[in-house]
Amino acid sequence: MKTVIENAYIAPVAGPEIPSGYLVAENGLITALGSGPAPRIEGAERVNGTGCLVTPGLVNTHHHLYQWASQGLFQDATLFEWLTGLYQIWARMDADVVYGAAAAGLGWLALTGCTTSSDHHYLFPKGRGDLFDAEIRAARELGIRFHPCRGSMDRGQSDGGLPPDEVVESRDDILAHTAEVIDTYHDPSFDSMLRVAVAPCSPFSVTAELMTESAALAREKGVRLHTHLAETLDEEEHCKEQMGCTPVEYMGKLGWLGDDVWFAHAVHLHDADIRRFAETGTGSAHCPTSNARLGAGIARVTDLIAAGAPVGLGVDGAASSELTSMAGEMRQAMLFQRAVRGPKALTARQALELGTLGGARNLGRQNEIGSLEVGKLADIAIWRVDGFRSAVADPVCALVFGPTPPLARLIVGGHTVVENGELRTVAHDATGRAGADARKRLLQEGTR
Ligand SMILES: [Zn+2]
C-alpha cells in the first residue's frame, strides 16, 4: 500500500517545517518527505494536500473511554464529589456499555486527529462480561493504535479509600487478570497496534501493596506503568494525612518514578518534584480541560518542559471533559500556560509537540510515532486549513490557536481511518449512536 501526499504544508515536529512539500508512505512507514513536487511512485494513491496542514497523528495519553456513557453529570462538583456520585452509576456498567462508549469515544478521537490513544480502565464489576476485551474490540474495528491500561482499585471505603467497597477488587484477582491481559494482548513490536500498561487507579483508591506489586509485575513483563497523581489539593492533603508525605514523595517510596512511568494530571507539583521527574524521566499527561472543569488547578507544564521532563497531553474521561478533542487540548494547554505565565509560556509549536512527540514519549514510542520522519510509522493527520482558516497565514497557528479544523484525512499505519471528516473504517453515524445507546443502558433510561 502506497500513498503520496502532495502540495501540503508539512509540520513534521522533528526537523524544519516544509511550506510546500510531499510525504510518501509505503507499507505503513514514512519512506520520504521533502520540499517541492512529489516523486512519481508506481501504484501509489495521490492525495492532494492543497490548503492542508500535515502533522503527525496526535497521541492521547490519558482517557477513560467508558465515561463517554456518563457525560454532563455532576456539572459543578469537585473531584471527590464527582467521583463519589459517579461510582454509584459506573458500578452498573457491563461489556455492552464499555464497547459502545469505546467505539464512540475512539471514533471521536480519530475525527479530531488522534492516531494513538491510551485508555485507563479501572472498574471491573463482577459478572458483567469481558470489559477489557470490549474496548480492545472497538479499537481494532476502528483501526486506531491503542494502549489500554489495566486499572484497578483495592482500597474501598472500609479501608479508608474513596470508592464504595462493591467496585473494588482483591489484590490477587487484580494481579492475576493484569498478567493475563498482558500475555493475551500486549504486542511489543515496532509497528504494534496494541500495548498494555499496568495502572492502579490512584493513591487514594489503591493500597501501597498493590502499587508495589503492580510495579514489580510491569517490570517483569516489560510493560509501562500509569496512574493518576497530584490532581487536586484535596489529594495532597489526603496523602499527607494518611501517608505522611506528598504524592510524588509517596510514589518515590513505592518505586514508581522512572522512565517507564507516566502520571495523569501532575497538577500540584513542588519544585523538587519537577526535578525528580526530569532526573528519572517520569512522564506526565497534562489534561487541561478536565483540570479546569473540576477546578483542580493548572499543571506547571512550562516548568516541566524547561526541566526536560517528558510531558504529553490527555483528554481524560469524557465525564470530566465532555466531547473533548485532542487538538482542543493543545489549544487549552497553550492558553492556560499563558493565562498564568504570560504570552511566552508556551508556543503553538510547543503545544503541537506536547500533542504528538510528548505523548509518544509518555508511551515509550518516541522512536516509532510522534513525528514525521523517514522510517517512522505512517500515522498522519491532514487538516483542512483553507476556506475561513486561510485568513490565518501560519497553518500551525490556525490549528493550535483556533478551534479544531476538519480533517481531510487521518492515516494510521498507512490506512485511511477518516476521510473528509467522516469515519471510513466503521459506520460513521452508527458509531455516534453507539455512544448514546451506551449512555441509555448505563443510566437505565429505557426502564425509568
Ligand atoms: Zn483520569
TrEMBL record:
Please name the CDD domains in this protein's record. Answer: ATZ_TRZ_like
The Gene Ontology terms for molecular function here are: hydrolase activity
Superkingdom in the source lineage: Bacteria
* Amidohydrolase-related domain mapped to chain residues: 53-400
The record's section on InterPro entries has: Amidohydro-rel, Metal-dep_hydrolase_composite, Metal_Hydrolase, MTA/SAH_deaminase
Sorted alphabetically, the keyword list is:
Hydrolase
Q: Which Gene3D superfamilies match?
A: Metal-dependent hydrolases, Urease, subunit C, domain 1
Name of this protein: Cytosine/adenosine deaminase-related metal-dependent hydrolase
